[in-house]
Amino acid sequence: MRLDLPLPRSWAVVERGARTVVEILPGVLLAFGALERLPRDLGDWGDRVVLAGVRPETYRPLVVEDTATAGGWPLTLVSSEVVRAGTVVEHRLHALYHFLEWGGVAVLTGTAGERFAAAADEARPVLLEGRPDFRTDEVLTVAELWDGLAPTPGPAPRSR
What is the end-to-end Cα distance of the chain in Å, rounded? Predict the structure, then answer.
């Protein structure tokens, strides 16, 4: 199961597999991938997601926006910066999706402020179209074990 985003053809796919990474503009990447089961504490989950890979003292939140996708799924957009020695070294936009008991994350990152802002403007409508792709190769129900199998004829019932 994974996050499904309608990527424009102009965005270059850099990596595909467990996660997808696309380059929207030179040096500005959007990464997303598998859905994960949400914990009870959504605030803790959100904090872990936006702080991943950075020391808390270097993280500067800018804007947190609670909204919804075009399909009505809850979505939180978190704009932030990573600052070292007083200099912004990375701009970030996290999209945190809530699909029933599953969560999805897309992260836009870049180092150049103006280029990042332009890419964020381009990415926002795509992020708002995010939806879950609940397909999986795992068997979820007993009925799926029998899908595609033709019934084998058995003996005719005897009449009494």
Answer: 52
120/108 Cα distance (integer angstroms): 7
Quick: pLDDT tens for 67-90. Answer: 999 999 999 999 999 999 999 999
Please give the pLDDT value at position 16.
81
**Statement: residue 146 has pLDDT above 70:** no
CA triple 92-96-42, angle to 5 deg: 120
Contact (CB, 8 A) for 34 and 2: yes
Which residue from 35, 9, 52, 27 is spatially nearest to 134, judged by alpha carbons?
Answer: 35
Q: Where are the beta strands (DSSP E) in 26-126?
A: 28-33, 36-37, 59-68, 74-84, 87-99, 102-110
Whether 59 contacts 50, CB under 8 Å: yes
Helix (H) or strand (E) holding 148: none
* Amino acid at residue number 91: H
Residues 25/118, Cβ–Cβ less than 8 Å: yes
**What's the mean pLDDT in 112-126?**
96
